[in-house]
Protein: MBL fold metallo-hydrolase
Organism: Paracoccus aurantiacus
Amino acid sequence: MLQTILAPNPSPLTGPGTNTFLLGERDIAVIDPGPDIAGHREAILAAGAGRISHILVTHAHLDHSAGAAALSAATGAPVLAFGTADAGRSPFMESLVTTAGGGEGRDTAFMPDRRITHDEEIAGRDWKLRAIHTPGHMGGHLSFLWEDTLFCGDVILGWSSTLISPPDGDLLDYFRSLDRIEALRTSGLLPAHGDPIESPAARIAELREHRQERSAQILRALANGPADAANLARRIYEVPPALLPAAARNVLAHLIALTQLGATTTPGPITPESQFSLR
């Protein structure tokens, strides 16, 4: 009923690679076709055995959506998603598109055949999914509820916290998505990277606490004077130098959220180089 095919795209941000899920027997839904790698597509087609009826994409990042078009062409199955890579941003994040930088891994060519919205049902002959809008990692991020299990894309990972890179990523939306997922009371989570999560409530609590402590670290650091995101990342993260740019994007997400909440301020437009200070 459920098969998992691991894409050959391991990295510090994707872990062992992208999990492509195949759900169903008579009709098969492919959830996150993954990167556009011929060998991975061939593995999906072999597992689908001519029964792939739906292609669902959690969000328009290249490691999730880039393989959708070729898989659709090979099977005739429609591609369903919240929208393009630009979809789902809050008005505030939309106002930062030209100044905040970011855009890592965006699949700017992605175009679903059908757009789906929060709480919409998608069904095959032997399965039923409910779309859950879970922005935070990306504005148009969807998770898919199957019975009491949630395919949660990149919003919750078991081995790491997800990258939140504005303006596509939004920390306040992320917290709201954690609340929304927690309220589902699922028995398990199936992330797009890494192993299944068997204790969803505990993992959600851990991630919420982690982000709250990161905000507290930033506020403590700003008590010593104004700083930008990169400077703060170097001071509060203990990661290899190659991961500091991603850390700085996460810090910027925290700074933007803290500014929206009135705890910090910065003169002029928000950019990666903006100097933030305590209000």
User: Anything to note?
Assistant: The first strand starts at residue 2 and ends at 6.
